[in-house]
UniProtKB/TrEMBL annotation:
SUPFAM superfamilies referenced in this protein's UniProt entry, alphabetically: YgbK-like (SSF142764)
Similarity comment: Belongs to the four-carbon acid sugar kinase family.
Name of protein: 3-oxo-tetronate kinase
Organism (species): Sinorhizobium mexicanum
UniProt GO MF annotations: ATP binding; kinase activity
UniProt catalytic activity: 3-dehydro-D-erythronate + ATP = 3-dehydro-4-O-phospho-D-erythronate + ADP + H(+); 3-dehydro-L-erythronate + ATP = 3-dehydro-4-O-phospho-L-erythronate + ADP + H(+)
Amino acid sequence: MTILLGSIADDYTGASDLANTLTKNGLRTVQTVGIPDPSLPLPDVDAVVVSLKIRSVAAQEAVAAAGTAERWLRGRGAMHVLYKICSTFDSTDQGNIGPVTEALAEAAGGGTVLVTPAFPETGRTVYLGHLFVNGQPLDESPLKDHPLNPMHDANLVRVMASQSRGAIGLIDLPAVAGGPDAVKARLDALRAEGAGAAIADAVFESDLETLGEVALRTPVSIGASGLGLGLARALVRSGRVPSTVNTTADAIRPVGGHAAVIAGSCSSATLRQIAIAEQAMPVLRLDPERLLTAASDEISAALSWAGERMEAGPIVIAASTTPEAVSDLQSRYGREISGRAIEAATSAIAAELVARGVRRLVVAGGETSGATVDMLGIPAFLIGPEIAPGVPMLRTIGNSQGEMLVTLKSGNFGGDDFFATALAMMR
Ligand SMILES: Nc1ncnc2c1ncn2[C@@H]1O[C@H](COP(=O)(O)OP(=O)(O)O)[C@@H](O)[C@H]1O
Ligand SMILES: O=C(O)[C@H](O)C(=O)COP(=O)(O)O
């Protein structure tokens, strides 16, 4: 398998988000979970998105994992590697976007790396280096309350600089509006000044097409699905993509079996989606404190609840709760310990539900998805049709339970009726 574009995603929902965008823009794409075993039968594709769970880990762990993935992608012919970060720039104060960016740049021979999380289709825009979420500055948006990576500064040049050894520059909107040559000139000027990376403004898809055109001339870039859109369209325009046939058809064959939603995201969007789902299907709200103090009992109780209901139709099991309740739990048990313990519990519940016949599974939350997919041992996914902007249906490849339809929903994505919409498509 020789590929054109490689990507390393710092969480699993972000990986499927990007894979959706690349597919929609003409690239045959597959999503892997880590580096796949050489024996895994992967389809002939133009792009591979390697899912990693490194958004909230220690910087050196993220750098090491990303470096291994980058070498694997280059070994399969990737001429460009995109480090897929969150469109809301989610990262801990200690990193990891800066350290991974510097390591990938060094591996690629240096230079100033283009960075933009803009994804206008989902309301993420960047202006004068400041990130806006549906018109709100990042630090005034719901992302300020993220359980693991609360975002307190919308100025991405400052945020990136705080995580980086080198200087961080800005490619402002007037430069982007000037087209690829103007952006290239600005990037060259920043490189001459010794900048390690440059935050690029983007408000419209046309800005992303410009940035994708320039990024593709370099070996590495950093961004969210918006930059993926620009890279994909630049590749198709270059004539290097053998076919732009939509390949999601392979992924939608019905699988039958029971259906379940596992929610760990505490985003405002997911909380709304759970509330709407409650009007149409059984919803169990787990006791987060018992998941920390009596996990096996709470898991057993949840599985008994599920066993009485999942024959009749889809069920929802959620740990998700309000920012206030999250903060209260974290104040008593710690942010990291709470998050990982709840991920472990929700993934254990998911795995047992699959053992009892669930083959159509929706997971809400990036870290929650990572824990669940790892617990199930799923090595890769075919990309199916889009359910909502940034959220495709996926079909498993090579997992021991047999083929499943899976949706890994980014916490902030999807409309209020997302769960019913997804389950109606996942037959
Ligand atoms: N009730 C809760 N209290 C504290 N943390 C929680 C609760 N429910 C879920 N979590 C944790 O919050 C984090 C949510 O992160 P993630 O799954 O990535 O969602 P998102 O996609 O919204 O970022 C996970 O670590 C999860 O275990
Ligand atoms: O918002 C994005 O770019 C991606 O969909 C993503 O990274 C989502 O991460 P989350 O943890 O599921 O919010």
